[in-house]
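step 3/5: co-fold with magnesium ion
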Amino acid sequence: MDKPIRKIIHIDMDAFYASVEQRDNPLYRGKPIAVGGSPEGRGGVVATASYEARKFGVRSAMPSKRARELCPDLIFVRPRFDVYKEVSAQIRAIFHRYTDLIEPLSLDEAYLDVTVDKLGIGSAIEIAHAIRKAIREELQLTASAGVSVNKFVAKIASDLQKPDGFAFIGPSSIEAFMEKLAVEKFHGVGRVTAQKMKDRGIFTGADLKKLTEEELVRDFGKTGAFYYRIVRGLDDRPVQPHRETKSVGAEDTFQEDLSSLEEMAPELDRLSVIVRDRLQRHQLRGKTVTLKVKFSDFRLITRSFSLPVPTDDLELIQSTVRQLLRGVLEEPVKIRLLGVSLSNFGEPPPTVQLGLFFTED
Ligand SMILES: [Mg+2]
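step 4/5: write tokens
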């Protein structure tokens, strides 16, 4: 009762916001630019850096102040989310020529299931090339594509030849590919987990494969079971169109466990800025603010608070999260991960609120 082999494409636009800005403004072309908050304002964060800026080590989610230190000539550009949304819809329209089984992950990234395609082309590789060509010719932007039989491997493949790249990892080469892959390249393995693995002599997929499922769960919590399957190339998650955004969040694992409010407050403020930016990008406001805490022993708790009206206001998010954290800190703790998210999205508040948004940042 074998299921038919699926054909999955992962498309990822190259430095999307920055590329759109460079396309639309010749003054930015060939220059290091960062789309995001200004380094002067409080809590500005880089949303996307151009490839010229990445050479200096500028990365997304980095505080804008830090980005300017790394690259003094960096040009900061305010995001134009309405434009990115429009371009994203144009990209989506190109996908729809081939399949309606599209799962967007964000404005610039999507999975496509082309096991059956609308034009009867039959080759995922050919479709991926046609999509990249259409994006280049019609939108003057570049995309990278990965093709495989599941989402996990397709996503890794799209990153292999970035920017403007393409990679295909077929069923017969998946296991060998995963064995050679460095653990930090595993999507979902953050830098802290990667370091923890290396400390134990786990450098590649092959090393990871030597561990039993029980050992992986013991050492890495629930995700351990996911690693066990993924290193064997097993991932049967379907491509889900119309998947609603149910929550918007950001989290980080720390190099050293945190134990005081003084250590955690700046981390929470930074995560809140990222969440606020993501909310605005998706034009969402959430009523329920959730704090996620993972302790050093991998125990995971969440604490939530529901506001009277949906919000994307940074200060309100920050103060709510801090309040939630105070409750957790009533006993001594060692914390390895903090996360902030908003959910329970509602209609935007009445226009009375507009003043707030104009003065923001
Ligand atoms: Mg991208």
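step 5/5: annotate
The chain is about 40% helix and 20% strand.
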